Each structure stands twice: as C-alpha cells, then as structure tokens.
Amino acid sequence: MKKLLAVLVLAGCAATASAADVVGNAKAAPNKIEMCIGCHGIPGYKATFPEVYQVPMIGGQSAKYIESALHAYKKGDRKHPSMRGIAMSLSDQDIADVAAYYSQQNAQSRK
C-alpha cells in the first residue's frame, strides 16, 4: 500500500510539474499565429464585433503579458467574444509558443 501511495504521489508531482513548466517555442508558432495576424498584424485595424474596437499590435509585447491575456480570455476574465473563442482553441503550449513568437518581434510592429 505504501508503494502504491508513493507511486501515485510521484505521478501527481510529475504531472503537475509538466503542466506548470510549459516553455514557449517561437519556432513552433508560425502555424499557430495565422488566426492572430488577420487583426493584430494590421496597423490601425479596428474590429467591429461586438463593437468598434481598436485592435492592439502585439509584436514586441512581453511573453508573460501575452500569456496572461490569452489565459484571461480563455477563462472568461476578459470579455471579447472573438478572442475568447480563439483562446479556447489554444492549448497551454500553443499559448506559450504564440507568446514567445510575438515577444521576439520588434516594438515597431506595435505602432
């Protein structure tokens, strides 16, 4: 019984560590950012759903900020319906990869 408990505890620790230790890979992002560039890659773009909304340029933002924003959309803490739908389709690894990619863009792409 003690061995079984030890195995279960170790397995739980390993699962928790792997989920918490997601590392973004910018090179894995090009196929994942196709949804993003249609709005975030156009300087001065304004979305009209659900209301007129100035879409921010995200190139050059910190990875931590982008990850935080995408997780907030995914949980529903941020309320833009299009972004929530996109974020819901992303895994934690996808979010980390997209954040890594955009954080490596230069700040000029935000203007």
UniProtKB/TrEMBL annotation:
SUPFAM superfamilies: Cytochrome c. The keyword Cell membrane does not apply. Residues 1-19 form the signal peptide. The keyword Transport applies. Keywords: Electron transport, Heme, Iron, Metal-binding, Signal, Transport. This is C-type cytochrome. Gene3D superfamilies: Cytochrome c-like domain (1.10.760.10). Transmembrane segments: none annotated. It holds the Pfam family Cytochrom_C. Residues 14-106 form the Cytochrome c domain. InterPro entries: Cyt_c-like_dom, Cyt_c-like_dom_sf, Cytochrome_c_Oxidase_Subunit.
